Amino acid sequence: MEPPVVKKRGRKPKPKDDKDQQQQSAGKMKEAKKIQQPSVDEKYTQWKSLVPVLYDWLANHNLVWPSLSCRWGPQLEQATYKNRQRLYLSEQTDGSVPNTLVIANCEVVKPRVAAAEHISQFNEEARSPFVKKYKTIIHPGEVNRIRELPQNSRIVATHTDSPDVLIWDVEAQPNRHAVLGATNSRPDLILTGHQDNAEFALAMCPTEPFVLSGGKDKSVVLWSIQDHMTASATDPAAAKSPGSGGSIIKKTGNGNDKAADSPSVGPRGIYQGHEDTVEDVTFCPSSAQEFCSVGDDSCLILWDARVGSSPAVKVEKAHNADLHCVDWNPHDDNLILTGSADNSVRMFDRRNLTSNGVGTPVYKFEGHKAAVLCVQWSPDKSSVFGSSAEDGLLNIWDYDKVYASIFVDEDVLFPASYKLVKAFNTVVYIACCMLFVVEPNEDDRIHIALHLVYVYVVWVSKFI
Asked: CA of 432: how far to CAs of 76, 78, 154, 338, 360, in Å?
């Protein structure tokens, strides 16, 4: 059977006219004259040689199947030399066995504990003793996105190739064996409201049990799962009561494995304002009523649920191409990052945005050579963030340290010494503040490089 193809974000390239093709051909001719760039293998060898310098600790764990999403969960235990951390990851199979959501426990060595010699001698073919599978959930379809609920570490949400968002209680779910013919695990809750597939845009509110999603129907949908959490806490077997804030909880049973006997929740609000697929969403860190979204219409939209379902602020041309990702600074509510198919990352200050669509980014960060797929702020330092792209690069930035560059290079910033990691492959999927570098190789295996957020912050601090 054919191996699974690593899934790219659901965007089809726009058709090019003759002029564009001529310009592209001319560009290729110019590039051919340039000095030949190092191969992927050479770049990987270079990165591997720098591992002891880049990381305080690194563990490599070889998986059987590619992983489309991975995410840190809560810290489970603290010890003198290492911590035990929850890890969520997905397995995208070729159909011979079901797709799965895997819950694992990782032992993460603390900074300045592991020897540099040990870090540099990792084996790409081995499975790490630091990563132990805790539970497997047979997921109905591929797991495109995983998000955890800050208020309850047992609850995670997943996106697949369907209009629904699936909610899972990872402790209550039974452990399953992914064998051919096995039935799908039953979600603890199904969130309905999208009219078309919602594959990637997914967020959990840091202050309230709210879930946010975006999809191909060009809409942003908001749910509250407070009633479900309350009912589960008091009596997991009890019938679910009608939801608050306009949500309606009902039973579903349409013959689909994932929906059979699973309760569902209707939307608390549906927000219309995009003219193309919504690719990413995020909540304001300090408000459950404020959130933002980006999409293939090149728009950045800020929403306020208290004033209705129309955009509070809409930046019509946030980038020169489709927007793929967005993140809100957890330390400063005014700063928002966006990443785009124009290969750049931009930082906006919402105080400078106006309701008529005018908005100039505070900074433009240009260090990638392909579409940016993920941006995320560091939870530990307000000026540090990471970006990853289809060029296989994971860049770590500190806008405080390169602030002076705006006076000498027309407001365009480069990663300078903060380009710490080069994870080399055709596509790199990064999650949870670049904690994971997922590298599909030609043998259909995955190497996951694990390091805590504080690892790169500690490393950067050596140069501050």
From this structure: 17, 20, 17, 16, 27
Spell out the long-range contacts of 412-419 with Cβ–Cβ below 8 A and sequence spacing 24 or more. Answer: 412/364, 412/365, 412/366, 413/363, 413/364, 413/365, 413/366, 414/365, 414/366, 414/367, 415/365, 415/367, 417/463, 418/460, 419/367, 419/393, 419/395
Place of tokens 């008091």: 234
First to last CA, the chain: 52
pLDDT one-digit tens code per residue, 203-235: 999 999 999 999 999 999 999 999 877 776 666
Measure the CA–CA gap between 216 and 211, rounded to whole angstroms.
17
Spell out, as residue ranges, where the chain has pLDDT lower than 70.
1-37, 116, 232-260, 355-359, 402-464
Total count of residues recorded for the chain: 464
| DSSP structure class, residue 350 | G
Which residues face 169 on adjacent strands? 155
- Report the distance separating Cα 153 and Cα 170, nearest Å: 9
260 Cβ contact list (under 8 Å, min separation 6) = 186, 252, 253, 254
Spatial strand order of the sheet with 70-78 comes to: 70-78, 82-91, 100-109, 131-138
- How far does Cα 145 stand from its chain's mean position? 7
In this structure, the dihedral spanned by the alpha carbons of residues 56, 62, 65 and 69, taken in order and rounded to 10 degrees, is: -10
CA separation for the pair 352, 421 (Å, rounded): 32
Of 225, 229, 197, give the one whose Cα is nearest residue 212: 225
Is the separation of the CB atoms in 297 and 279 below 8 Å? no
Contacts of 445 (CB under 8 A, 6+ apart): 62, 63, 64
* Pairing label, strands 70-78, 82-91: antiparallel
Q: Do 163 and 201 touch, CB atoms closer than 8 A?
A: no
Q: What is the pLDDT of residues 118-142, one digit of tens each?
A: 777 777 888 888 999 999 999 999 9
Within 8 A by CB and 6+ apart from 411, the residues are 363, 364
Give the helix/strand (H/E) hosting 251.
Answer: strand 249-251
Take residue 393 and report the two structure tokens written for it: 């690069």
Identify residue 401 by its one-letter amino acid code.
Answer: K
